[in-house]
Amino acid sequence: MEMTLIILIGAVAAVLANMNIAVFNDGLRPIVSEHVEGRMTRRDLAFTAFAMSFGLVIGFGIPFTLSASIILVHSILLGTDIIGLLTPKNKWGTPLAAVIGGAYGAGLLIGLEGFVKLFDYLPLNFLEAMGAVGTPVVVTFMAFPALAVAMQFSVKKGVITFIVSALIRQLAVWLNESGVLTISGTTVTLNQEGMALITGMIFLLVFAMKEKAEEGSSIDLAAVFSDKVAKIRKNVVFFMIIGGLIAAATNLWIMAGDPISLNLLAEGKATDAGIAAAARALGFIPLVASTAIATGVYSPVGFTLIFVVGFFSPNVWVALIGGVIIIFIEVMLLSSIARFLDKYPGVRNSGENIRSAMTKLLEVALLIGGANAANAIAPGFGFFFIAGFYLLNEAAGRPIVRIAVGPVGAIAVGIIANILVALGIMNIPQ
Questions:
Q1: In the chain, where are the structural domains located?
Q2: For residue 107, is it left (φ>0), alpha (ψ between -120 and 50) or beta?
Q3: Nearest one of 59, 25, 55 to 370, comparing CA atoms
Q4: What sign does the dihedral 161-164-166-168 (CA atoms) show?
Q5: Residue 379 CB contacts under 8 Å (≥ 6 apart), including other chains
Q6: Cα 165 from Cα 158, distance rounded (Å)
Q7: Are 213 and 344 in contact (CB under 8 A)?
Q8: What parts of the sequence cross the membrane (predicted)?
């Protein structure tokens, strides 16, 4: 079932990209629209897609996938964007995109399993140490709403949000340790990071909804781009299919939608991963809705709520049906969401700030996690390598995105350490 799901996801996603219906890379949607409207050739579109997505697949998707042994959705869907747009949009090009997309998905899953087994044959098995990459992410994720508030409203409000979130977290810790909360004699354990996260998101939403559009300044996005909305609705069946497949794959713990929920899932915390995915989805609704309405090109994962469905569903079949339903509802509500975003520009603007805050937090957390993992693999040398790698990457103009420096650096240290152990230059850490 796992292999079937991944093959189908790869095939359907590649077809959606090939037919200019949906692409995963947010920055590609306006460019695909340029091609659809005749202002860009297919060749230029293909090269642009490759340039925008290939580096993210290699430098972002694959390292996270390997570090947790769970497929980060970016690994497969950024790849299918490239595959779909590189193949011609005709009677033989579209089926070819499906075949290559399916094979690419299968290759990811097979390669992942084979890669995990390969570690047992290495002089120094550093797979377990790689788990340290995501450890800081789980703890620090609760701080992103406070950062988003500071970026959008004021540092003062951000500090207040952070302090209250931290207090709520410690209150949850105290309640868990004291065993005060009980239901029918059973002690209830609260997730302290989850409680802090919810608190921060409440502050963010309250501040955002206080910003209303000035009279006469609102533009009805749904009315202006009604033909684009109609095009997306016409293709809703395709979105329902891939939405159900991805939700099912998430339920089986073989896929996650972002590094935070991926690391939580790797620790067996599916509920916490679902909460993190829900918080992330809130930030993506304004972006996906706005770009979809303006371009007529949707995202194969919609507002990313299908991952939340996958995490919280009791079994794979409920997840499959839930994914189908939720993405259908999303598409049907596009016009209403656009009008809501016009009414509350603070909510619309918060989407960009939420994503920026998450990115900044991940850059710091994953750098710390990568350094810890690298140092566990090669004590002393690990810290030295990550620090030098980060600084040289900055000096070179960031050929590797900051968010990937920690995981990529840790993998590099693992490879170097194995070479040194094989040469007898380094002892295996105890």
A1: 2-124+216-343, 127-212+346-422
A2: alpha
A3: 59
A4: negative
A5: 429
A6: 10
A7: yes
A8: 6-24, 68-86, 93-112, 132-151, 158-176, 188-208, 236-256, 284-309, 316-341, 361-392, 404-428
